[in-house]
Amino acid sequence: MNSDVAISVENISKCYKIYNKPQDRLKQGLFRGRKYYREFWALRNVSFEVKKGETIGIVGKNGSGKSTLLQIIAKTLAPTSGNIKVNGRVAALLELGSGFNPEFTGRDNIYLNGSILGFSQEEMDDLYNSIVSFADIGDFIDQPVKTYSSGMTVRLAFAVQVMVPKEILIVDEALAVGDELFQRKCYAKLEEFKQQGGTVLFVSHSGSTVVQLCDRAVFIDGGECLLVGLSKRVVNLYQKFIHAPIEKKQQLRDEIKSILSSTNLQSDSFEVEGNKISIIDQPSSMIELEAAYDPHFIFQGTIYESKGANIVSCEILDSSAKKVNLLVSRETYTWTYLVEFQKSFNDVQFGMLIKSESGLELGGAVSSWLGKGLLIKENTLVKVEFNFTANLLPGSYFLNCGVMDDSGTYITRAVDMYAFKVLHREGLLGTAIVDFHIENKITISDLENEINV
């Protein structure tokens, strides 16, 4: 194992024996010549390396084998076959409050976890105040952990793992239960750990978090490692895969595996030789990213009390008039809704508004200014259409719609009525929320040469 490698995963496989009935387990022990179980392979021949000081994200849908892999790396679970080599002290946050005794207080569990990690009581005495300060759970530190909320439990668990001395930190989606401020605090601590040369192995379902935090990523599906490479590249293909139509999934899966077998995506993305800097281009997917509709991604919005009109339906349509809620950045779509009027109104305005997942109002429009609206008669059905370009970065968003009368009062309004996602687009390098179509040019100069990147 090279000295610059923190973790080496070599052909790791994990098989579980599944018994249909409890008595079958007893029969298996008594009659070893027969087979009373079926095999379930959680992992099959997974291999990759993590360099010291590198942050690696692991992506994959639920049940793909991510957590099993982390448990094997943390040595809380033994593989069926293969080898794991770890160079450095590991701190792992694998499950919510793992290693905590619910009957013990938070204070007691800090020392219990410390002893499990191999630290003496004197060493934990030195770390105690910083752990309590980071967890920030107040007087609950002296209460039994069984009285904690899930958020308080993960605060304390993360505080212990992030504050103890280590070279490698493993985090398995635990931050998802924390509030927004605590998540930011944790990510800042992870960044600080990275700057100090620490190695991080990070599992998350948030593609944008993996892209922002990780140098490289590993894509696992069905227990197989499909791809290892630059985080943005891997997340792009992962997003394409999970949102691809069922009939195209196997084709895309085979394509991704062929990329892994034919290209060394585990190498650095930059080669530097003297004054020459070149970017190693990665092969693009043959399947174009396209808008689609996910019937499982539905949010129940709030409709205001009607004052003479009702919003009866709404949807986003792509350029071919197909209903979608998975959008491609920079493509144009139509937000349309139907309104039934039970009364007549003067100077009617129709509106739309896009909001972020946190509720931030990103932008919208009205059909006209006050004083220039439409006269709508009773028993009328009105179809409203707003064309917009999805100049948004990958993430989840919500669409609102509303109808106002000549006084600016809502006749009817639907808040967060339609949820949609913006998918990762190949080559998109923007950050935050809005895509401003920013282009960049970086020039590196020395006394004799000028290099354009």
TrEMBL record:
* ABC transporter domain sequence ranges: 7-247
Q: Which CDD domains match?
A: ABC_KpsT_Wzt (cd03220), Wzt_C-like (cd10147)
- Could you list this entry's UniProt keywords, alphabetically sorted: ATP-binding, Nucleotide-binding, Translocase, Transport
Keyword Nucleotide-binding (UniProt): yes
User: Superkingdom of the source?
Assistant: Bacteria
Gene Ontology MF term list: ATP binding
Q: Which SUPFAM superfamilies match?
A: P-loop containing nucleoside triphosphate hydrolases
Which Pfam family is one of those matched by this entry? ABC_tran
Q: Which family does it belong to?
A: Belongs to the ABC transporter superfamily.
- Put simply, this protein is called ABC transporter ATP-binding protein
**Organism expressing this protein natively:** Cohnella suwonensis
